[in-house]
């Protein structure tokens, strides 16, 4: 159980560090009483991304050999290298301008969540859901839900601490790169892909 929870936490953090900066930008523009609307929008966007990943994982689950599924670990490795080389492309000014109207805040946050995290989240979650046991998925989903709340609260608190936010903004990309690559290597190893390729003559 603890391994499953740790896997879920690691996967979420690997895709959520850059989004934490986005949350700080959002909280810098919304009123204190509207921060709950941000949480609802965050949940809606995350549900769409996780649901899409589960659907893709379901179809990929028909691949017969586990080591073939392990090749999906190359996706987070690719994302990590891409992030390292190209950097982030989120426009913070554009994001901030979309959350100034409380009436459309939930929808705006949901769209921002899907737009800024879409490719990365699906790229990490599909290999994860494809390679874990089916009975572990509900626990991972609960872990994701808890992490959404934790990151939402962290984003709000860090928005009040400019120095901490500045450090996270500078170093967050490199931490994310490391986690992406390590997670990809773990998927390759845990599914026997590396071992299989090493035994091919």
From TrEMBL:
Superkingdom of origin: Bacteria
Membrane spanning stretches: 6-27, 39-61, 67-85, 105-125, 137-159, 171-189
Keyword terms, alphabetized: Membrane, Transmembrane, Transmembrane helix
Protein name (record): CadD family cadmium resistance transporter
Organism, scientific name: Levilactobacillus tangyuanensis
